[in-house]
Amino acid sequence: MPQYEQLKDAIAASKTLSSEEKTQSVQHIEEWITEDRAFGLIYDELIEVSEAFKEIFRELGLV
Fold it and tell me: What superkingdom heads the lineage (predicted)?
């Protein structure tokens, strides 16, 4: 099971967090997952255009 799924399960099982906090937390996690996947796709596509993008991403501290 991916770590983010474990985190979502732990949030759902939490007795400390309110229902609203649980909902918001899971929404944030899902947004981050989507953004991370989108970044991966962008990176892959740009690398196909030119290997120079590897250095650009490195210089920006993105990889």
Answer: Bacteria
Domain-by-domain residue ranges, the chain? 21-63
Please give the model's pTM, rounded to 2 decimal places. 0.69
Tokens of 34: 């989507």
Closest-CA residue to 25 (of 49, 42, 52, 33):
33
Sequence-separated contacts (24+) of 31-35 with Cβ below 8 Å: 33/4
Residue 20 confidence (pLDDT) = 96
Return the structure tokens found at 16: 């400390």
Closest listed residue to residue 63, CA positions, set 49, 48, 50, 44: 44
Assigned token pair, 60: 């920006």
